Amino acid sequence: MSTCKNIRWAPFCVFFGLQRWLWWIILKLLIPDCKDFVDARILAKEGTQGGAETEGNSKIILDEIYKLLGILDSKASALMRYNSIILAVLALMVKGTTLPHVTIYIVVMTIVSILACLLVVGVYWRFLEWVKPTGSNRLEEELQLLRRVLIMREAAYQIAWWMSAAVLLLFLLNFREFVASITPAVTPKAG
Questions:
Q1: Which of 9, 140, 125, 130 is nearest to 69 (CA)?
Q2: Cβ atoms of residues 76 and 114 within 8 Å
Q3: ∠ CA 178-181-185 to the nearest 5 degrees?
Q4: Cα separations in angstroms, 45 against 5, 39, 69
Q5: What is the pLDDT of residues 8-60, one digit of tens each?
Q6: Is the overall model pTM greater than 0.85, yes or no?
Q7: Could you give the dihedral angle defined by the CA atoms of residues 162, 168, 170 and 172, in that order, rounded to the nearest 10 degrees?
Q8: How many CB atoms lie within 10 A of CB 169?
Q9: d(CA 125, CA 19)
Q10: Which of 83, 152, 147 is nearest to 114 (CA)?
């Protein structure tokens, strides 16, 4: 690869390197290990006896965590579409009218919901990057991070969902004001 190409891609490499480092710190230091919480429930669901740390149990847990993350990803994507519709409706209402004061709260809460959804759908490292090619428990480090990602994404999705529910409630409670702001006043004709 030429020096020019190296220089051209350097900012992206630095950005993605810093992003990966930041997420690794957040996941390792700020979110506690959730092994007992996550593994016991997954193994109980699968009808497998917990306790024994085996490669088979680790694979079951890994598969289930990825299934749960896929479900959260789908739900967060749908919630972002809903939030986009809310913002589009508000943008269409803005044309030459003054909207109710609650509009700013609706916009801010919708944006917070979208940002929380982006936490849910983000990819922070390559799939199976932390799997050791050899050793007794090859999946342990990958599972440690995935358990924490699962807990973080569940919390982010719950925040996003509650924000969206609050936006809908505010919109419905102030629906009359919104309609009044976009409906021209009817004035009787003189005569």
A1: 125
A2: no
A3: 135
A4: 50, 10, 16
A5: 666 666 666 676 777 777 777 777 777 777 877 888 777 766 555 666 778 88
A6: no
A7: -150
A8: 10
A9: 10
A10: 83
pLDDT in tens, 167-191: 999 999 988 888 887 776 555 566 5
The answer to whether residues 125 and 20 touch, using CB atoms and an 8 Å cutoff, is yes
For helices 140-173 and 103-121, give the axis angle rounded to 10 degrees. 160
| Dihedral class, residue 135 (left if φ above 0, else alpha if ψ from -120 to 50, else beta) | left
User: Which class for 13: exposed (0-12), middle (13-18), buried (19 or more C-beta within 10 A)?
Assistant: exposed
Helix (H), strand (E), coil (C) string for the chain: CCHHHHHHHHHHHHHHHHHHHHHHHHHHHHCCCCHHHHHHHHHHHHCCCCCCCCHHHHHHHHHHHHHHHHHHHHHHHHHHHHHHHHHHHHHHHCCCCCCCCCHHHHHHHHHHHHHHHHHHHCCCCCCCCCCCCCCCCCCHHHHHHHHHHHHHHHHHHHHHHHHHHHHHHHHHHCHHHHHHHHCCCCCCCCC
CA atoms within 13 A on the CB side of 127: 6
